[in-house]
Structures are given as structure tokens and as C-alpha cells.
């Protein structure tokens, strides 16, 4: 017992001597919400892994501080409808000093596609020739349409034209992995700090599982000029919002998120509050399987007209930065020239109780019901989901007399129930995987595994195929506009809100980048402003 | 020799002596004595009064305060007791079309203007904009010149108007407009406008909430009073008083019935085991050990399945059954221990020698002597049952929303403890009062029922 106590106090001792911003050691401390399950980029799925990998690894391209795509390991590239060619810079090095070559990318992608790897994001590679067949196990990994004429050139044969192929490459699945190192770890690749080889601006020098991490500057990184910090410490791993706020107040961490309850205090303290819309859309999804009342269009229309999302966002959730949902396509997506939302403005649904009741009457006749159906609403177990599901429950009861049963589940169980179709309605969210409207647009395709309600419409499938296969931006964007209209007209889903994040950062920190696509937040280019100008 | 005549009357027994020992006071039965001593204990009597009050609060209360505990008053979310309820009647909210509105901009640096009186429906701002300029708009509850920051960023805009509808409350807001440079960094060009927001309600909403009866009697600008919530509302605008009443039904039901049932079961089991002793006792207590080892949560889930309770339905009955089936061994062990001890006491032997039957000995001598232990256990089980219900409701195994329970209300209230303390305080206070009342009553009962203390004071 005593030994245990000493062990834990020495741990906290190590943690307490780091401060939010350490000017002398040129380092900062941050908090992450969860520990990355592992850091093998071919298997990474969650946002925290993506954020950590974004600091210690570098892919072919990256999102720059100005939000544009810029070369990383690749110096230059060219995408045609049939091939994509990347010319790698010669000074890109691994943390052991060896050069990063085209073979490292080929090995990584082949690994991600192997059926035994079980990568959830292997589908992102399906644009590459033979990738889908390799993932299904019908072709060997060596059949992948990627070749390296010399160590610094990577030629990718494309299965079909993908106009946004280069933009997809910021996703962690496309990061390089060196074969000899991967094999030397004997299946433990990415499980620990010394089981990884780094080619990014930082390397993980210490990883105490469940407790803390340290990233230190990678001396072999090619672009030293852009990197200013010597170290980033992660002394705390917790998702407790109150703990995070208290650490920030005690100058232990450089950034914290703010909840609606803390805003008044933050304003009183005079903190520089910032806001970031993280690109995620939240919506109510319906179940379209046979025998579900929600398969009925008029019932969905009734619900669509009964729920006032403005009221929910402005009065119930009350979080700044949240915007009432109007479409599955969030407002930040680019269209042909300007924002997609400006080019194809979605029809705004004005809530109307009497029209909703009329639709419900029709629906009840069609379904052969004498009274409104009872619906099961599947929801997450976090506080925001609870409040929202209770609001939906009460709104539908008051306006339509529909009884709603709330089924609160943890994330994994909710996903399992969604896949099994064990729900009528579900509070769901979707974040972008790459910077093209298609990342949202193909969500309701009959072949998409994430279409958990099994919506199936020939008309919509045709539109999605157009958006996928056409190269002309104008044609694609019109298809997205039509998809959006189809989703609204048929009440396929009910957009609730686009999520925002409200946070405060230590005022000495400059060049912190928040972004929708790619690692967020990105501390890699941060410098400390000492104020001595 | 004189003869004497004896009559049968002479052989009648004499009347008993009147002056002999006499019981001068009415005979006191065990229970009457206990009741007398309980009455002499003011704390116990006060706690009995409290319990009676709590029972009346949850049973009669809902008839006196007829408010639906699940109705959401979204105009008054999270208000404390005694909050201002006045509201002004205004036209309904209309979407804003700033392009069609001709506004004369105010005469300040950036022309920041409030285009119409600020209400809780919306605050509409306009300003002068040159081509290509971008702005960031802030809102603050405090004067930026005092705190040194503009406050909460609402939006980044490349247009000349903004409509704020986020959680507007009656009061003063400071809106600041800051111009951004080409890189999106803030420039020194900034202006702050003070805005006084008044609370309004539209005619349709006023009729819906029953504040006025018909549209005919409505007069724009008229002052009304919103629905009264004596103890405030929770995070969804639901009446706290009504929720406390309905929530108490669940909490007190579980808190009283579950301990009552499993303590009774435990007492019977424990006294049988203790009284019979020997191999039977060993076997019975090993079975009790086995039951202790069963995981409560697992059984709770199993019962939920057996009872056919789906998601979103109340799990109160399986909870009650699980508690009764799994929690009896603790009181059973205590009672058995006591019985084993009492079985060897002299007065028990005496009672048996005088011909007392088993049931008489147990009922008359043994149980009353264990009552102290039993009651102490009971009173501790009441709060623990209430907390178990709270915990299970929190993980979705107990009451289903929107049904309230005190425990579930505490769990919700703790999230906003610093900003809206009343949401946590009231249910927590009621749980505390219940627990205290049962503890004090238990104390009093133990003293009153303890056979050894009989007639001592």
C-alpha cells in the first residue's frame, strides 16, 4: 500500500513541474480528452489519434496554416483522371535518420488494405486501382496500383477519376510506415513510444499509458524553420470538463474548452474566448426497415414540422457556436466557386404545428393506426444528448401526441444498435473524412455501410453516382444541390445543428490552428510570444 | 353446652383483603410502554412528523399543485425561486430580411446600430461595411473596458448585419464589433454598443401558455406574468416543485418498501437459522454467503430482461425485486448473531421451563431483544436504497425520462451546481431530510423498543 502511494506521488510530482507555457524550456502543456488506443496509422479511427499522429507524422500533403493544401513529404504532385504522381523531397527523414521513400507509402497502404489488418478506413483507399479487391481478399496486396519508379517518385493508378484525390491524403490512413521497422515490432507497432518511427515535426519520447505523454522536437525533421517549440507535454488525459477548466485556471494547461455554465465566469475573468466550428453535423436519423412507422413519409414530415431546431439550439442547448441545422451539408463546404450553401441554399423548414398534425393524421391512416405511434429514440449517454432527447420527447408529445421512449446507450452500444436497426429514431452525428461535399453526400447511398437506417432510393442513388463519377465541378455541385433537396423533401433526416467549440488559449500562444479537416487542434507550428518586442 | 347452628353461608370464603398489595396503575403492555417512551422523545416525534409531512408532500401534494412535471417552460429555463416573471406582449418572431430594411446607421465609428428594440426574441445589429472587410462580433455580460476582453465571440462575418438569438435573457449586454485584417487577425478598429434586452412573449405563445385567453383581449406592449414556479425550474424549464413531488413518489417508494421487505425477509431467515442452530444454521448461512456474492447490477439487468422491460421504460419494479432478493443476507446475519446470543440467556431458559412454546419464546423474548439491531439496519438501508435508485437511474436502469426521482434530479443538478444551485439543493435537501428523519426515528424506536431499558426512566 505504502509503495503504491509513493509511486503515485512521484508520478504527480513529475506532472506538476510542467506549466501551461514554459518560456525557458520553450515548451507548452496541453490536455487530451482520451488516450489514443494505439498509433498505428493504418488502423487509426478516432480524432485523438488523428491529432497526435498529425504532430509526429507527416503524409504526402498537409493542410497549411492558411487552410490550403500544401506539400509535406511530397514536393510537388499532379493528379489526372487516371493517375496521380507525387515527387517526394529528398531531405524528408525518419527519426532514425533514414530517408522517407515512396516504398514506405506503398507498404503502409498495402498494410491498411490487407483484410487481416481490419482497418475501418480502408475504404478511403478504394480510389486506388485494385484496392477494393485487395480489401476483400480476392487479390494479393502486391496487386495494388501503386509503383515507385525511383525512391522519390510515387505513381498511383486510379480505379476511377477522383477529383479530390489529393485532398483525401491528409487523412492518417495515408501516412507512411517503414516496412523493416514495422516487421521488427512484431505486431506491437504503434502500441508504445518506442514502437513507432516518426517522420513528423515531433517524436513521442514518453508515453505513460493512461496518464501522460511527451512530444519532443524531431531533430531529423526536414522543415525545422517552421517548428518553434522544443516540446509539447500532455500531463493530463481526461474528458472531465470541470477538471480541464481548473487546470487552465491553475496555469497547468494552455487551452481548455468552455461549457455553457462556465461562460459567465470566463467573461468575468476577461479571458480571450475563441470559437471554432468543428465541421460536424448532428441530426435525427430514421429507421427505414420494414415494419417501422418511421418508414412512412408523412410521419417523418409531421416530425420535421413539429421540431423547432432554432428553439433547441438557442434555448435548450444554449452553447455558443452551435448553428441550427438546415441541411446535411454543413455551411463550411466549398462549392464550385464560393460556399456550397451560397450556391445551393437549402430550403429552411419553418415549424408549423397544425400542418404537422395534418401530416400525422394522413400517416396514421396510411399505417392503419387509431392513435399516434410510440417511437424509440436512441441517444448517447452524454449530458447534451440527454437534454436533447428529452426535448425531442416533450416536443413530440406536446405537438403531435407521439410518445417517445428514450434509449440511452454508450457510444459503442449505440453504434451496435444502429447497425442492427434496433431503433425508430437516433441522434446521430457525422464529421467529414476529407474536404469534399461527397464525404456527406454519399451517406444515404443504399450501398453505404453508414446508412444505418437503410434508406434506399433509386433517385438518390443516381444523384450520388453522378456526384461520385463526374469530373466537371459544376455538374457535381448541382448533384449535391439535388441530393440536399431530395433529403429535405423526403425528410430523410432532420438536421439538428452544426457543432461549435468554445475555448480559451493562453494569450502567449500564437499560430495555434483549429481546423475541420486534419489534426485539430494543431500545435505543431505554435510559438510562444514572450512579449519582449 | 350450647348448640350452634351452622348455615352454608358460614362456609362461604371470606372476601379477600382490600388492603393487600395492589397494582395501582393500569397494566402496561410492551407496545404501550414503547409508545409512551417514544412520545417522551421529542426528536423521534419531530422526525415522525417530518416523515408524515414527506408522505403527504408526495401523495397529497400533486393534487394541490396541479402542474405537469414534464412540461417544459422554455421561457424560464433554470430560473431560481422568486425570479422575475414579468414579460411584455410583442408581435410574433419574424425572420429578418435585412436587405429590405432601410436603416439609418448610428453616428459612431463603424456605424454599429441596433435596428429595432432588443428583445429576448432577437437582437438585430447593422453596421457600415466596405467591400472585402471582415468582422468578428462579440457579446459580453460585463463592460469590456472593465474586464479587458470583448467576451463571447458570436460570429465571423463578411456582411453588414447580424441577428443574435442565443439564450437571450432580460438584462444588459455589450456587443463589440471588431474589424479583421486580411489574415483574419483582429485590428484595433472596434466599437462596443450597450444593448438592453427586454423579455417578450408573442400573443400565440401567451395563449398557448394560458397567460391570456383570447387574441381579442391581447394588447401589444401589455405587461403579463409568466407561469409561477415557486421553487424555480430545471435545465429544461420544468417546474421543480412538481418534479420534487412526483420524484418523491419514486424515491420514497423504493426507499421505504425495499428495506422494509428485505429486512423482514432477513429477520425471518436469520431468526430461523439462529434458533434452529447446528447443521441447519450452517447450511442456511452458507446460502446467505452465496447470495452476498451475487452481483447486484447483473441481477438488475437480468430482472429487467425477465420483466420484459424495454429501453425507455421504468425499471422500478425489477429494481425492487432485485433489492429484496439480493440484500436480505446483511440483516439476516445480524439477527442470527443476536438470536444465537439470546438463545442462551437465562430468561429464555426460564420461559421454556415454564412451558413457553417456540413461537412464544421467539416472538415474546427473542425478537423484541433484537429489534434495536433490526431498526438500526432498517434506518441505514432507507438512504442507501434511495441512493441506489439514484445511481441506477443515472446509468439508465432506473426511472425513464421524463419521470423524475430525487436521485436522478440530483445527478442532473450537480452539472450546474455553481450557476444554478437550486437544481441540486432542493432534491438533495429532501433526500437529506428523509434520511435524517428515518435515522432519528430509528434511534428513538430503538430506545423505546429495547426491552432492557423498559421502564427505566
Structural summary, described in words:
The complex is a heterodimer of chains A (533) and B (457). With 533 residues, chain A is α+β, with helices and mostly antiparallel strands. Chain A has helices spanning 2-16, 47-56, 102-113, 131-136, 165-168, 179-184, 241-249, 263-268, 297-306, 309-317, 340-343, 353-367, 383-400, 411-420, 438-441, 458-469, 473-489; strands at residues 21-22, 27-32, 61-63, 69-71, 74-79, 83-88, 146-147, 153-157, 202-208, 212-217, 231-237, 255-257, 273-286, 323-324, 374-379, 403-408, 425-430, 493-505, 509-510, 527-528. Chain A contains 17 helices and 20 strands. The termini of chain A are far apart. With 457 residues, chain B is an alpha+beta fold. Chain B folds into two domains: 46-68 and 236-456, MetI-like (MetI-like fold, Orthogonal Bundle), CATH 1.10.3720; 101-198, Sandwich (Immunoglobulin-like). In chain B, helix 10 (329-343) packs antiparallel against helix 12. The longest helix of chain B has 37 residues, at 240-276. The mean pLDDT of chain B is 84.
Summary tags:
heterodimer, A: 533 residues, alpha+beta, seven-stranded mixed sheet, five-stranded mixed sheet, 17 helices, 20 strands, globular, disordered N terminus, B: 457 residues, MetI-like fold, Immunoglobulin-like, three-stranded mixed sheet, 10 strands
Amino acid at each position: 500500500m505504502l509503495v503504491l502511494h509513493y509511486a503515485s506521488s512521484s508520478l504527480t510530482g513529475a506532472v506538476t513541474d510542467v506549466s501551461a507555457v514554459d518560456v525557458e524550456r520553450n515548451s507548452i502543456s496541453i490536455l487530451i480528452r482520451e488516450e489514443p488506443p494505439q498509433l498505428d496509422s493504418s488502423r487509426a479511427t478516432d480524432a485523438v489519434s488523428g491529432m497526435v499522429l498529425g504532430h509526429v507524422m507527416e503524409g504526402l500533403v498537409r493542410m497549411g496554416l492558411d487552410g490550403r493544401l500544401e506539400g509535406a513529404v511530397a514536393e510537388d504532385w499532379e493528379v489526372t483522371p487516371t493517375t496521380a504522381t507525387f515527387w517526394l523531397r529528398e531531405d524528408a527523414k525518419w527519426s532514425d535518420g533514414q530517408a522517407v521513400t515512396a516504398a514506405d507509402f506503398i507498404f503502409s497502404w498495402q498494410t491498411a488494405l490487407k483484410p487481416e489488418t481490419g482497418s475501418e478506413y480502408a475504404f478511403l483507399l478504394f480510389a486506388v486501382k485494385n484496392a477494393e479487391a485487395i480489401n476483400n481478399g480476392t487479390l494479393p496486396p502486391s496487386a495494388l496500383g501503386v509503383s515507385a519508379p525511383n525512391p522519390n517518385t510515387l505513381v498511383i493508378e486510379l480505379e476511377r477519376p477522383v477529383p479530390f484525390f489529393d485532398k483525401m491524403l491528409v487523412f492518417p490512413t495515408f501516412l507512411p510506415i517503414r516496412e523493416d521497422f514495422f516487421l521488427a515490432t512484431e505486431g506491437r507497432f504503434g502500441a508504445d513510444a518506442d514502437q513507432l518511427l516518426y517522420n513528423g515535426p515531433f517524436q513521442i519520447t514518453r508515453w505513460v499509458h493512461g496518464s501522460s505523454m511527451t512530444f519532443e522536437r524531431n531533430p531529423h525533421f526536414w522543415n525545422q524553420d517552421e517548428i518553434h517549440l522544443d516540446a509539447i507535454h500532455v500531463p493530463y488525459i481526461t474528458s472531465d470538463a470541470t477538471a480541464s477548466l481548473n487546470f487552465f485556471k491553475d496555469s497547468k494547461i494552455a487551452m481548455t474548452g468552455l461549457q455553457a455554465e462556465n461562460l459567465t465566469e470566463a467573461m468575468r475573468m476577461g479571458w480571450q474566448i475563441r470559437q471554432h466550428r468543428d465541421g460536424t453535423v448532428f441530426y435525427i436519423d430514421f429507421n427505414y426497415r420494414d415494419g417501422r412507422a418511421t418508414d412512412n413519409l408523412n410521419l417523418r414530415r409531421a416530425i420535421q414540422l413539429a421540431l423547432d431546431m432554432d428553439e433547441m439550439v438557442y434555448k435548450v442547448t444554449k452553447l455558443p457556436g452551435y448553428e441550427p441545422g438546415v441541411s446535411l451539408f454543413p455551411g463550411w463546404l466549398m462549392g464550385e466557386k464560393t460556399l456550397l450553401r451560397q450556391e445551393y441554399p437549402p430550403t429552411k423548414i419553418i415549424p408549423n404545428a397544425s400542418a404537422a398534425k395534418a401530416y400525422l393524421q394522413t400517416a396514421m391512416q396510411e399505417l392503419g393506426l387509431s392513435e399516434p405511434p410510440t417511437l424509440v429514440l436512441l441517444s448517447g449517454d452524454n449530458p447534451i444528448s440527454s437534454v436533447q432527447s428529452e426535448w425531442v420527447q416533450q416536443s413530440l408529445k406536446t405537438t403531435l401526441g407521439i410518445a417517445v421512449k428514450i434509449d440511452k446507450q454508450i457510444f459503442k452500444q449505440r453504434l451496435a444498435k444502429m447497425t442492427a436497426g434496433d431503433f425508430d429514431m437516433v441522434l446521430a452525428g457525422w464529421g467529414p473524412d476529407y474536404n469534399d461535399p461527397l464525404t456527406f453526400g454519399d451517406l444515404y447511398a443504399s450501398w453505404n455501410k453508414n446508412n444505418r437506417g437503410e434508406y434506399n432510393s433509386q433517385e438518390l442513388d443516381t444523384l450520388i453516382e453522378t456526384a461520385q463519377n463526374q469530373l466537371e465541378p459544376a455538374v457535381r455541385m448541382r448533384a449535391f444541390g439535388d441530393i440536399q433537396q431530395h433529403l429535405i423533401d423526403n425528410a430523410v433526416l432532420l438536421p439538428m445543428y452544426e457543432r461549435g467549440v468554445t475555448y480559451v488559449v493562453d494569450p502567449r500562444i500564437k499560430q495555434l490552428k483549429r481546423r475541420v479537416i486534419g489534426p485539430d487542434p494543431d500545435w505543431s507550428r505554435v510559438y510562444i510570444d514572450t512579449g519582449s518586442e | 353446652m350450647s348448640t350452634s347452628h351452622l348455615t352454608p353461608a358460614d362456609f362461604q370464603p371470606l372476601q379477600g383483603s382490600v388492603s393487600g398489595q395492589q397494582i395501582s396503575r393500569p397494566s402496561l403492555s410492551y407496545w404501550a410502554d414503547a409508545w409512551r417512551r417514544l412520545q417522551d422523545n421529542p426528536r423521534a416525534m419531530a422526525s415522525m412528523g417530518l416523515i408524515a409531512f414527506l408522505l403527504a408532500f408526495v401523495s397529497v401534494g400533486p393534487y394541490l399543485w396541479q402542474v405537469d412535471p414534464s412540461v417544459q417552460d422554455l421561457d424560464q429555463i433554470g430560473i431560481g425561486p422568486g425570479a422575475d416573471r414579468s414579460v411584455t406582449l410583442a408581435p410574433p418572431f419574424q425572420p429578418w430580411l435585412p436587405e429590405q430594411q432601410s436603416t439609418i446607421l448610428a453616428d459612431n465609428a463603424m456605424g454599429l446600430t441596433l435596428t429595432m428594440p432588443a428583445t429576448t426574441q432577437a437582437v438585430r445589429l447593422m453596421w457600415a461595411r466596405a467591400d472585402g472587410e471582415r468582422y468578428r462580433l462579440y457579446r459580453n455580460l460585463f463592460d469590456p473596458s472593465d474586464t479587458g476582453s470583448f467576451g463571447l465571440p458570436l460570429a465571423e462575418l463578411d456582411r453588414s448585419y447580424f441577428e443574435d438569438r442565443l439564450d437571450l435573457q432580460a438584462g444588459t449586454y455589450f456587443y463589440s464589433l471588431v474589424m479583421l485584417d486580411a489574415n483574419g487577425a483582429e485590428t484595433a478598429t472596434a466599437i462596443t454598443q450597450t444593448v438592453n434586452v427586454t423579455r417578450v412573449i408573442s400573443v400565440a405563445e401567451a395563449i398557448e401558455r394560458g397567460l391570456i385567453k383570447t387574441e381579442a383581449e391581447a394588447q401589444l406592449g401589455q405587461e403579463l406574468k409568466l407561469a409561477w414556479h415557486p421553487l424555480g425550474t430545471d435545465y429544461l424549464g420544468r417546474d421543480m416543485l412538481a418534479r420534487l413531488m412526483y420524484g418523491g413518489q419514486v424515491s420514497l417508494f423504493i426507499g421505504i418498501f425495499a428495506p422494509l421487505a428485505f429486512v423482514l425477509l432477513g429477520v425471518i431467515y436469520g431468526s430461523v437459522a439462529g434458533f434452529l442452530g447446528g447443521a441447519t444454521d450452517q447450511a442456511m448461512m452458507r446460502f446467505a454467503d452465496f447470495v452476498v456474492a451475487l452481483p447486484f447490477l447483473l441481477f438488475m439487468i437480468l430482472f429487467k430482461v425477465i420483466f420484459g422491460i424495454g429501453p425507455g421504460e421504468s425499471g422500478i419494479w425489477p429494481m425492487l425485486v432485485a433489492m429484496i432478493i439480493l440484500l436480505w443476507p446483511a440483516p439476516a446475519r445480524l439477527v442470527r448473531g443476536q438470536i444465537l446470543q439470546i438463545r442462551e440467556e437465562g430468561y429464555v431458559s426460564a420461559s421454556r421451563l415454564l412451558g413457553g412454546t417456540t413461537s412464544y419464546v421467539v416472538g415474546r423474548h427473542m425478537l423484541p431483544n433484537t429489534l434495536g439491531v433490526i431498526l438500526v439496519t432498517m434506518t441505514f438501508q432507507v438512504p442507501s436504497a434511495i441512493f441506489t435508485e439514484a445511481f441506477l437511474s443515472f446509468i439508465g436502469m432506473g426511472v425513464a425520462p421524463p419521470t423524475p426521482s430525487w436521485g436522478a434530479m440530483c445527478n442532473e443538478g450537480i452539472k450546474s451546481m455553481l450557476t444554478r444551485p437550486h437544481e441540486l439543493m432542493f432534491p438533495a435537501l429532501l433526500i437529506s431530510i428523509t434520511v435524517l428523519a428515518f435515522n432519528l426515528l430509528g434511534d428513538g424506536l430503538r430506545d423505546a423498543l429495547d426491552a432492557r431499558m423498559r421502564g427505566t426512566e
